[in-house]
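A student in our group prepared the protein record below, which I am reviewing. I have pasted the whole thing underneath without changing anything:
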Amino acid sequence: MRELTYVARHTVEWREAPDPRLQSDQQAIVAPVAATSCDVDSAILAGHATRRQPQIKYSLDPPFAIGHECVARVVETGDAVTSVTPGDLVVVPWSLNCGTCDNCRAGLTAHCTAVPHMAMYGAPIGGTWGGLFSDLVRVPWADAMLVPLPADLDPVAMAAASDNWSLSWRLVAPHLRNRPGARVLVVARGSIGLYVCDIARALGASDVLYVDPDPEHRKLAEGYGARTAEQAEPVHHGFDLAVEATGRVDQLALAVRSLAPEGVCESAGNHFRPGELPLLDMYLTGVTLRIARDNVRAHIPEALALARSGRVDPARVVSRVLDWEQLPDALPEKHLKPVFVRGDA
């Protein structure tokens, strides 16, 4: 089989690899049919993750198989697998999880203790598991990991359910349950911020301000009902919830400075560079700040349920639909959310 391999800054290529084989009766082999680039893939392709900085424990030095968002078709399953069968379309979560350790049972699926810490597809952290821009992929615990895609959802629109779409649901949905009508600030550069705008409005946010220098992104956010700005100054006590997805500490500082008392900031940015936060301001306001990779498997079903409701339209974030064979040339290009398809996706 082939796996798309990150080999240098802005450069990927097909490389041959052995076909994956079942290694236990709990496993499955899947074939991605609609795969897309995660916002972190853009940082990897730009070379940010390979820069040597003392505060970064992991350096993602090439070559390695890339990609961790896809809908796939099940090709083969072990005898103990009961939740999916060959031919099913499934969402493949970005992180590896067994489903039975204490962390998995607590919903901390990105911290499964059956594998090295942060084991994932698409990056050599926690071992080498391959990438979801590959012809075939082995899933170690099929029943725990794979989520069947409902028949009424489009695989192209839901290619990001492995991470960015489901993460975006988690960034806002629980907070809007606790604070109906909350005012939401979104400071972003990619698909996560746009998904957040769509979900926040659908779930009853009273006001959504989207900050992004890209005019095309702002136009999409306006279509979701958000106010937009190319850049912004902190709005004192202006928002109950802020979502930062830029990877820039100065933009994270903007977000936390804009929070109302006891406000919450969710940071989904990948911060490869150091910076300073306004800790005294945060202390005086009573800010809650969460910076974390997502335990996505725990809430993929709820995120898919929202997509099925008709109240949101994630397909509008898809910037281009391209053929699978275009991956080496097209993936390094600047796209918001390209989806690469093969077969009958």
User: Anything to note?
Assistant: The radius of gyration is 19 Å. The chain is about 25% helix and 25% strand. The CA atoms of residues 211 and 231 lie 6 Å apart.
